[in-house]
Amino acid sequence: MEKTVNQKAWFLVLPVLILVAFSAVIPLMTVVNYSVQDTFGNNQFFWAGLEWFDDMLSSERMWDALARQAAFSAIILAIEIPLGIFVALNMPKKGFWASLCLVLMSLPLLIPWNVVGTIWQIFGRVDIGLLGYTLDKIGISYNYTQDITAAWITVIVMDVWHWTSLVALLAYAGLQSIPDAYYQAAKIDQASRWAVFRYIELPKMAGVLMIAILLRFMDSFMIYTEPFVVTGGGPGNATTFLSIDLVKMALGQFDLGPAAAFSIMYFLVILLISWVFYTVMVNLDKREG
Amino acid sequence: MRINGKAIVMGLYLLFLMLPIYWLINMSLKTNDEILGVFSLWPQNLTFANYATILTDSSWYMGYVNSIIYVTMNTVLSITVALPAAYAFSRYSFMGDKHLFFWLLTNRMAPPAVFALPFFQLYSSVGLFDTHIAVALAHTLFNVPLAVWILEGFMRGVPREIDETAYIDGYSFGRFFIKIFMPLIASGIGVAAFFCFMFSWVELLLSRTLTSVDAKPIAATMTRTVSASGLDWGVLAAAGVLTIVPGALVIYFVRNYIAKGFALGRV
Q1: Whether B6 contacts chain A with CB within 8 A
Q2: ipTM score of complex
């Protein structure tokens, strides 16, 4: 459908622009402002140029947090995407059971993030949690507040629990759009189960899977609340991801300059990677449409 | 055999999803003595005392009231500004429309942690700190793009002939939009509103940073209890269960739109 060219349509977009300018552009400019200045208190600011950026780029703390963050995002993507596809392939196609699956699978997605943290905090405790208690009884030493491996496993399993359903629901939506004729043709050709998946289902899911990867990457890269509630970034700094570190720096220590420089680089990294995904996504759309 | 295999996979997956939630509900129905004393798979002495505590103590239930106030404000605000914008994106092409569309998306990508401090300073300086409207405005950061994207998807499905016929019949834009167009995309508005509500409801970092007493959300009330000494696990679990309720109530009606909403209307 060809759209009419109409420059007056800008007036319809204006309310959104004003609102977003207030809630995004002004704060972002404040951050930029802080990132190039130094202060000795009393609201006196001095031009600091790129000093803070230099500082942050040579600070081990940031690189460590970035490494942990990248590892976390990579691990959860590697688990959630295949698992989500696998679950979607096993979902009932229609009827009562399909509705039931959709409802139950959506439930974790709608739970407030700090409650997700609380649920796993309780669930994993050795004294009162089902998971921790069971593991302890069968002789596996498990303590997510002391042991780094246990903390990582808890945070990752929690994220898998929280978000795999989203990947599954998206993949399911992609599968639903495949006409029956495709499967019948495959049957006539005596295609194997793998061939059906590789040449029919996967290409048809490519578009939605790109969205799933984009969303999961973005959201896991800015994860804050859930690990904060469960581990508080610990033990030590073992699960201090970028957002947790940034909040510590900005609101805990009020190190405005470094925190602002950190923020800008953080945002740019997300923006850059998301832009790549987005471009791929739009191109996929075009090829299909 | 194949159908059985599928059922087993789904059964195991759903069990994995439900167990932690069951455990939370289980704990919310126990007394603290029982939680810490005996390990049991279901409450031995069923009690609703934890829920009673929350619903009668104003420092607890005001958390819910505050959350509901700012979430509702945010939903109304987001939908109101998003409706005309989504219409513009779905019907017209204008200078910079594609860039604008992507720029809106970048706000969804922005880590809330980046905005926490500037928001705190911005709203403090205009005297809005610790008010509901501050949180509602802050949450428009990710909810307005979401609403625009979802609504645009629904509006594209409405044939353009309807607009043209209405204009020929002498409807003004405003009257056409409210009388004819909005009823046509009512389900889209419902879905967009649901997701604005949900994303604002689940967010903690910004709402906690921007409030202290008067507008403190339930999520922040809960974290306070976690850090205090002598944890009241039963009440904490009950508070958690109550925050799941709004999502659980409407989940059946939106089940077919969940994927759409999370994917910014692009499925």
Answers
A1: yes
A2: 0.84
What local confidence, expressed as pLDDT, does residue B266 receive?
66
Q: Count other Cβ atoms within 10 Å, centred on residue A195.
A: 12
DSSP B45: S
Q: How far apart are CA B120 and CA A252, in angstroms?
A: 13
**Is residue A47 within a helix (H) or strand (E), and if so which, with residue range?**
strand A45-47
Tokens 């609102």, residue?
A: A19
| Mutation for B interface: A28, A93, A110, A241, most B CBs within 10 A | A110
Q: Which residues of A, range 68-127, sit inside 8 Å of B by Cβ?
A: 86-87, 90-92, 99, 101-115, 118-123, 127
- A277 contact B CB<8A: no
For B58-262, CATH number? 1.10.3720.10
With beta carbons under 8 A apart, name residues in chain B contacting A103.
251-252, 255
Evaluate whether residue A25 is within a structural domain. no
Per-residue pLDDT for B228 more than 60?
Answer: no
CATH number for the domain spanning A221: value is: 1.10.3720.10
Segments making up each domain of chain B, as ranges: 1-47, 58-262
- Domain assignment present for A121: yes
A122: chain B residues, CB-CB within 8 Å? 23-24, 27, 233, 236-237
Query: How far is B42 from chain A, CA to nearest CA, in Å?
Result: 11
Contact between A128 and B27 using a beta-carbon 8 Å cutoff: yes
Which H helix or E strand runs over A46?
Answer: strand A45-47
In whole angstroms, how far apart are CA B32 and each of B37, B49, B105, B242?
8, 10, 46, 18
Looking at the structure of chain A, the number of domains it has is 1
Which domain covers residue A64, as residue numbers? Answer: 60-288
**Non-local CB neighbours of B174 within 8 Å, separated by 6+ positions:** none
Q: How far is B111 from chain A (nearest CA, A)?
A: 5
Query: What single-letter amino acid sits at A208?
Result: V
User: What are A52-104's pLDDT values in tens digits?
Assistant: 787 777 888 888 888 999 999 999 999 999 999 999 999 888 888 888 888 99
Tokens found for residue A246: 């940034």
CB neighbourhood size of A201 (10 A): 20
